[in-house]
Specification:
The protein has 291 residues and is of the alpha/beta class. It folds into two domains: 148 residues, Rhodanese-like domain (Oxidized Rhodanese, domain 1, 3-Layer(aba) Sandwich), CATH 3.40.250; 123 residues, Rhodanese-like domain (Oxidized Rhodanese, domain 1, 3-Layer(aba) Sandwich). Helices cover 30% and strands 14% of the residues. It has eleven helices and eleven strands. The protein has a five-stranded parallel beta sheet. The chain has a four-stranded parallel beta sheet with strand order 9-8-10-11, with helices on both faces. The chain has a two-stranded antiparallel sheet with strand order 4-5. Strand 8, helix 8 and strand 9 form a beta-alpha-beta unit.
Length: 291
């Protein structure tokens, strides 16, 4: 783990000139999914964004809705190249929504899946930037097209159904980052979002670490010591293979980031199939109620 993976608003502000340059050395991306984010929770890109930022829509740009999968390697190459990004660019991600950086950290996970070396996250995301009166603009950023050559995919950070079945059989740590109500099976999706599974509940043996608990009140990540203690209480010490999941893999990417990138736990995977897959599997075991 590099200490500069999580960058401060002051650091981003000090690099605004580079982010606005046509030179692809630095690129700034605002990532969100406006179709599932209430406007009261989110300042849209059109309403104002960090100078130099490009907008990526999580659903349209980073997902394959037909396959119910992340963007393909070729699609990822084209997306970045069209945005003026090369594989050598320093890419900084941020976003807003109910959870700061909700979709931005999922984008970070995709960048790592396709082998981008220098990708970072703005600590606190857009809410922190807006609430602390850092500069914004409504000017749309456009940069010269570049060639982008992704590597990978690097499967070590991604979990599939078979990996989850193995974790259940072996009693390995599973971290359910959803709300306690989702964890207990009382609801299937957060308020305002479509129910994407036939059943409510959790994967057997999972511990509940709601995603908001890894963040401070201002949306920045808690300290490493605080994160270590939080996950230790859930049975995660970094010594065993660990899988994080949520509903469709975006919230769980935040806790994958906390475990793998901030705490440096080596064998941590994000299960992007998450409850949308597991809750619809015929015969897949589930648990409900209090643990």
């Amino acid at each position: 783990m590099s200490d500069d993976i999580l960058v401060t608003a002051d650091w981003v502000e000090s690099h605004l000139e580079q982010f606005q340059s046509d030179d692809p050395e630095y690129r700034l991306l605002e990532v969100n999914n406006p179709t599932v984010t209430d406007e009261s929770e989110y300042t849209s890109y059109e309403e104002g964004h960090i100078p130099g930022a490009i907008f990526f829509d999580w659903e349209d740009d980073l997902s394959d809705q037909t396959q119910r999968d992340i963007v393909s390697k070729d699609g990822f190459a084209a997306l970045n190249g069209n945005a003026g990004i090369t594989e050598d660019s320093t890419v900084v991600l941020y976003g807003g929504g109910r959870i700061p950086n909700w979709f931005a950290v999922f984008a970070y996970w995709i960048y790592k899946y396709y082998g981008h070396d220098d990708v970072r996250v703005l600590d606190g995301g857009k809410p922190y930037w807006i609430n602390n009166d850092y500069p914004t603009t409504t000017d749309v950023s456009n940069f010269s097209e570049q060639e982008y050559n992704p590597r990978g995919p690097f499967e070590k950070i991604r979990a599939y159904k078979d990996d989850v079945e193995h974790a259940v059989e072996e009693g390995l740590p599973l971290v359910d980052v959803r709300s306690p109500e989702e964890f207990r099976g009382e609801i299937i999706a957060p308020e305002g979002l479509n129910e994407t599974a036939q059943r409510g509940g959790r994967i057997p043996g999972a511990s509940n670490v709601p995603v908001g608990t890894v963040l401070n009140d201002d949306g920045t990540f808690k300290s490493k010591d605080e994160l270590k203690d939080l996950f230790a209480k859930a049975g995660v010490s970094g010594e065993e293979s660990t899988i994080a999941y949520c509903r469709v893999g975006e919230r769980s990417s935040i806790e994958w980031f906390a475990l793998h990138e901030l705490l440096g736990y080596d064998d941590v995977r994000n299960y992007d199939g998450s409850w949308t897959e597991w809750g619809n599997l015929v015969g897949a075991p589930i648990e409900t109620g209090e643990k």
